[in-house]
Amino acid sequence: MANYVGAVDQGTTSTRFMVFDHDGQEIVRHQLEHEQIMPQPGWVEHNPVEIWERTSSVVQTALGRAGLCYSDLAALGITNQRETTVVWNRRTGRPYYNAIVWQDTRTDRIASALEREGKGAVIRRKAGLPPATYFAGGKAQWILDNVAGVRADAERGEALFGTIDTWLLWNLTGGPHGGIHVTDVTNASRTMLMNLETLDWDDELLSFFGIPRVMLPEIKPSSISGGYGHTTESGPLGGRVPLTAALGDQHAAMVGQVCFAPGEAKNTYGTGNFLLLNTGTELVHSDNGLLTTVCYQFGEEAPRYALEGSIAVTGSAVQWLRDQLGIIQGAAQSESLAREVPDNGGVYFVPAFSGLFAPYWRSDARGAIVGLSRFNSNAHIARATLESICYQSRDVADAMAKDSGVQLEVLKVDGGVTANSLCMQIQADVLGVPVSRPVVAETTALGAAYAAGLAVEFWKDTDELRQNWNEHNRWEPQWNDEQRAVGYRRWQKAVERTFNWVDVA
């Protein structure tokens, strides 16, 4: 009897496989990092073959560690880093080029040209997104325009496009030997190519990027009872398991945080930060720099939409302290170092390494540390890094309140950075509302498992999932209103210093 559901969580810096029981409790996990390839400033790439190999390895290792096999799994779900773009040959399964990561800024000229030509308004209206380097459509165009032979193969139907969910689904279901070429509505909504109302690729949008429709995957619901397909016996699970769910990581976290009602919101702290607000079946277009996106779609139900504030660099700023500056040896040390000082000592760090995403959308911005004096130490820089995570979330929360009229009463949080108690306390202080973390903080994988399990009636409905949610920690605000206002005003001054650093034609 299948007593568990599995979830592949393919993220920006690592891939993990997790298995959950009916109570939503973790049974086993295994996780491996993959290489971050940075050929030149602003370029960020991953090796798609390495990602597939890591996926296979974490699945096999986790199942072996728990003494499980494919027949113990009722279903399998996938969640993934969004917008990261792969183009590969359908016959050989080999990528034509490295995956271009969502953080990559090489498409800034493509994005600025769309605005200059008046196409930005159409993209916002149809796709709910501003023209930006963040999204997959421009990345696909860059590959078609710059990698020899790809456009000709694409027009013949030999070259396939996909975000990471599509790449993994294709490989898990056979690859060159019958692999399915599909994506779900959440990932498709991050391309600038899908119409949010029709939930299909839009010919006008495709024409803006010169992308042949034949290279695109079929768009499916996020959770589907018949499944997208089954894993193959030659694959990492060693048998046939129904693949019944796929969601972009932030949408999966909404499911994992059981944010099923309009007005419910969560903030995920990973490589970047992503604050989403469920708007139900209503498409809400933003006037304040947020994105309109599909939240999820279960089977034949109407899609649920969300407003999203996407922040490019938060947890990866802590990695930068470790890998580039060398002032900490591990992420956990950022908390102990920051606790050596009572405040930021006047230092503000705006980690605009890939420009600024929501609510600014400034591809011309670059990172800056401001307010330094001889008094300051590496502890102040560590503290300013944690504060930057929280202030960027405040930027988005304020924009969300303006768009929706909904004021946050409590912020549900998840992701790796939530293990940093000081950072979560600062977040409560900066926002002025309590911050709540669930027992299972890695809710992206849990959400993919929930969506997969719903499709096969492992869980009967979303009410049953709500019963699984339990709070683990809560942080109450400690700053007074004046502290909060002064800190945020200085943060906004620091953000302004990052503008107009890069010339974008």
Automatic annotation (TrEMBL):
InterPro entries: ATPase_NBD (IPR043129), Carb_kinase_FGGY (IPR000577), Carb_kinase_FGGY_CS (IPR018483), FGGY_C (IPR018485), FGGY_N (IPR018484), Glycerol_kin (IPR005999). Its EC number is 2.7.1.30. Residues 266-455 form the Carbohydrate kinase FGGY C-terminal domain. Sn-glycerol 3-phosphate binds at T12, R82, E83, Y134, D249. ATP binds at T12, T13, S14, T271, G315, Q319, G416. Gene3D superfamilies: 3.30.420.40. GO terms for molecular function: ATP binding; glycerol kinase activity. One of its GO terms (biological process) is glycerol catabolic process. The keyword Nucleus does not apply. Keywords: ATP-binding, Glycerol metabolism, Kinase, Nucleotide-binding, Transferase. PROSITE patterns: FGGY_KINASES_2 (PS00445). Pfam families: FGGY_C, FGGY_N. ADP binds at T12, R16, T271, G315, G416, N420. It catalyses: glycerol + ATP = sn-glycerol 3-phosphate + ADP + H(+). The keyword Cell membrane does not apply. PANTHER family: GLYCEROL KINASE, SUGAR KINASE. Key enzyme in the regulation of glycerol uptake and metabolism. Catalyzes the phosphorylation of glycerol to yield sn-glycerol 3-phosphate. Belongs to the FGGY kinase family. This is Glycerol kinase.
